[in-house]
C-alpha cells in the first residue's frame, strides 16, 4: 500500500506517538529519523507489525503534554546499524487531531486520534498560485547567509511548489512553536505566508541584536 494511496477508511483510530521537539513532518514529505532509545525501538517494532506501519510525529507542549495536532507518517525505509540503532524514513500521510492518550503496557505513548478536517492531506499535491519564487529565493539566500547555512540551491530552485515550501518548513531552524504553526497552516499558501513571516522576523531579530552590540 503506497502512502499516497491511503484512504480515510484505512487510517487507524490509535497510533503510536513520537514526541520530538522541532521535528516536523508534513503530508507527502519525507522525514529521516535516527532511533536508538529502547522505547522507540519497541515502537518501531510494533508499528512494523501493523498493516499501516504508521507513527505519529507531534510537538511536545510543555513537560508531559502534547500539542493537539500532529502528522502521521508511514515507515517507507529502514536500515539497522551494527550497534542496533535504526535509520528510518517516515513518508507523511495525514495530519491528525489527538482525542486522548491511551494507557497500555507499552513503553512509548499512544493516542486515539481523529483524521477529520485534513482530507486534503490524502489528495494530490497542493498548488500555490500566489508563490513569488524569485522573491522567496532572495529571502532564503539572506536567511541562509545570516544563519551560516548551506543547501542545494539548484535543487531548491527546481522543486515543485509543495515540495519547496514543505521542505523549507521542515528544514529551517525554527522553534518548536513556530514549527507547530507551519504544521497547522490550513493550506499550502498559508504555510508559505507563515514561512515568509518567520524568516522575516528572524532576520529582523538578527538585525536588532547586531545594532544592540554596536
TrEMBL record:
Stored SMART domains: LON
EC number of this enzyme: 3.4.21.53
One Gene Ontology molecular-function label: serine-type endopeptidase activity
GO biological process: proteolysis
Domain Lon N-terminal, chain residue ranges per copy: 15-203
Keyword annotations of the record: Hydrolase, Protease
Keyword Plastid applies: no
UniProt keyword Protease, yes or no: yes
Top-rank taxon, per record: Bacteria
PANTHER family membership: ATP-DEPENDENT PROTEASE LA (LON) DOMAIN PROTEIN (PTHR46732:SF8)
UniProt name for this protein: Lon protease 2
Organism: Pseudooctadecabacter jejudonensis
Amino acid at each position: 500500500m503506497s502512502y499516497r494511496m491511503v484512504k480515510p477508511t484505512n487510517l487507524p483510530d490509535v497510533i503510536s506517538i513520537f514526541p520530538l521537539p522541532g521535528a516536523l513532518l508534513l503530508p507527502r514529505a519525507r522525514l529521516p529519523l535516527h532511533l536508538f532509545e529502547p522505547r522507540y525501538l519497541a515502537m518501531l517494532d510494533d508499528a512494523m507489525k501493523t498493516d499501516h506501519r504508521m507513527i505519529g510525529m507531534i510537538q511536545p507542549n510543555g513537560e508531559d503534554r502534547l500539542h493537539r495536532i500532529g502528522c502521521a507518517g508511514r515507515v517507507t525505509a529502514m536500515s539497522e546499524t551494527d550497534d542496533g540503532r535504526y535509520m528510518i524514513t517516515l513518508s507523511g500521510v495525514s495530519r491528525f487531531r489527538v482525542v486522548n492518550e491511551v494507557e497500555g503496557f507499552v513503553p512509548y505513548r499512544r493516542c486515539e486520534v481523529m483524521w477529520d478536517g485534513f482530507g486534503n492531506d490524502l489528495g494530490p499535491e497542493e498548488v500555490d498560485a500566489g508563490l513569488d519564487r524569485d522573491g522567496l529565493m532572495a529571502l532564503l539566500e539572506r536567511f541562509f547567509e545570516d544563519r551560516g547555512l548551506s543547501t542545494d540551491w539548484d535543487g531548491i530552485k527546481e522543486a515543485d511548489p509543495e515540495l519547496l515550501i514543505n521542505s523549507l518548513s521542515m528544514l529551517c531552524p525554527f522553534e518548536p512553536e513556530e514549527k507547530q504553526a507551519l504544521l497547522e497552516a490550513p493550506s499550502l499558501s498559508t504555510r508559505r505566508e507563515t514561512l515568509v513571516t518567520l524568516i522575516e522576523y528572524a532576520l529582523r531579530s538578527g538585525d536588532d541584536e547586531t545594532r544592540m552590540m554596536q
